[in-house]
Design goal:
412 residues; alpha/beta; 7-stranded parallel sheet; 6-stranded parallel sheet; 17 helices; 13 strands; disordered C terminus; binds adenosine monophosphate
Length: 412
């Protein structure tokens, strides 16, 4: 059965058809009827499961059912990162393309002026990151008095990024009579408590095992000495004949260095992290989506919620700090149940963290060795930043050997 069974407006069905959605995903099946009935929702869906349509289609249906002549913000979606906000905006716009509903995303890192102008002319569904939304609220360039539906997306990441106080502030601006949906891949105690305060008799929508890895992913581990990581990465990529690859590193600096390393190996790549300007980030993401770059190197926060079709592989250059981050990272591949592979390069120093991840996943992941790779190569006399920093994987980012050198020279 397709989307017709939900009783959606023909304009929405037309859009869904044009997008080529043949049948609802499990979360859409589970959530759409409850959301349309007006219930609050506590959703713990896996990443890339079709969550945006699960809340977006019922929101649009509601706005169409009770048509307002004037455009005012009747639905608010809060998202932790700019990239995710832009992606939600794009999806919602595609669902709304045959209606007159206006969708706008507002986030920091870009000028506030055009956002003000668009808000002034009227918006029906607002997607926002918490900080920029509060800027607009403080300057009275938006009001939330007409909000009927509030969606808090990726709540656990909001918590990680320290956005909980901002969210509490935003809640004060919202009418108490509203429908609320909270989505979170994991439910740490702070989120459970926020949910209790925000939601009324929520329906729990859980797709798959909470916080488990997305289906269709094949994981493998490539153990090697820390100093061999820069050599094994291009070797793995060559062996696999990889196409669209997303590589994660632990720090922004390491992301930059991996980018350089790949450029040396003549692999077209772009780097995405928090120190990049919004323009650079958009260029990286768009270039990757268009296939201009084979590889996108990113840190966890920058890659949060990325939705790029057909990522064939995720490679963890460094073991992620927490099992939750592992689940989020590999959720970038196998989106909407496409198959994808996730590989993690693990140094002996990182084995403990890797084992914690395996316990979380409830499975021991296969250890793979590359043929024709010299695992015995000694460390170079002078270590590069990448080789050295990978020894300390859980502690804070260290000032690298290479970045310290200019300072020492100046002293001399
Ligand atoms: P989301 O979890 O909302 O970010 O969606 C992940 C990806 O799945 C996006 O590229 C959507 O366009 C796609 N998608 C969502 N729902 C469906 C569906 N029912 N059939 C096929 N693809 C879908």
């Amino acid at each position: 059965m397709s989307f017709e069974k939900f009783g959606l407006d023909p304009r929405l069905l037309k859009a869904v058809n044009e997008l080529g959605y043949e049948r609802p995903t499990p979360i859409q099946d589970a959530a759409i009827p409850s959301v349309m009935a007006g219930n609050d929702i506590m959703g713990s869906a896996q990443t890339g499961t079709g969550k945006t349509a699960a809340f977006g289609l019922p929101i649009l249906q509601r706005l169409l059912d009770e048509h307002h002549k004037k455009h005012s913000v009747r639905a608010l979606v809060l998202s932790p990162t700019r990239e995710l906000a832009a992606q939600i905006e794009e999806s919602l716009r595609s669902y709304a393309c045959h209606t007159r509903q206006r969708v706008l995303a507002v986030f920091g890192g870009v000028s506030i002026v055009p956002q003000r102008e668009k808000l002034r002319t009227g918006v029906d569904i607002l997607v926002a990151t918490p900080g920029r939304l509060l800027d607009h609220l403080d300057h009275h360039t938006v009001t939330l008095n007409d909000v009927e539906v509030f969606v808090l997306d990726e709540a656990d990441r909001m918590l990680d990024m320290g956005f909980l106080p901002d969210i509490r502030r935003v809640l004060h601006y919202l009418p108490t009579k509203r429908q609320t949906m909270l989505f979170s891949a994991t439910i740490p105690p702070e989120i459970a408590s926020l949910a209790r305060g925000m939601l009324k008799d929520p329906i729990e929508v859980q797709v798959g095992v909470r916080s488990s890895a997305a289906v269709g992913i094949t994981h493998a581990i490539y153990p090697c000495a820390a100093h061999l990581k820069p050599e094994i990465l291009p070797a793995i990529m060559k062996e696999l004949g990889t196409r669209q690859v997303l590589i994660f590193t632990r720090t922004k600096r390491r992301a930059d260095r991996v980018g350089k390393l790949l450029s040396k190996a003549v692999i077209r790549n772009a780097v995405l992290h928090g120190d990049r300007t919004q323009k650079q980030r958009i260029a990286a993401l768009e270039g990757f989506k268009r296939g201009q770059f084979e590889v996108l190197v990113a840190t966890d926060i920058a890659a949060r919620g990325l939705d790029v079709e057909n990522i064939s592989h995720v490679i963890n250059f460094d073991v992620p700090g927490t099992p939750e981050d592992y689940v989020h990272r590999i959720g970038r591949t196998a989106r909407a149940e496409r198959r994808g592979d996730a590989f993690t390069i693990v140094s002996p120093e990182e084995e403990m963290s890797m084992r914690a991840i395996e316990r979380h996943l409830g499975q021991v992941l296969p250890r793979v060795a590359l043929r024709d790779f010299n695992y015995e190569a000694p460390p170079p006399e002078r270590q590069t930043g990448l080789q050295r920093a990978s020894v300390n994987t859980t502690g804070p980012a260290r000032t690298s050997f290479t970045s310290r050198r200019p300072k020492l020279r100046r002293k001399r």
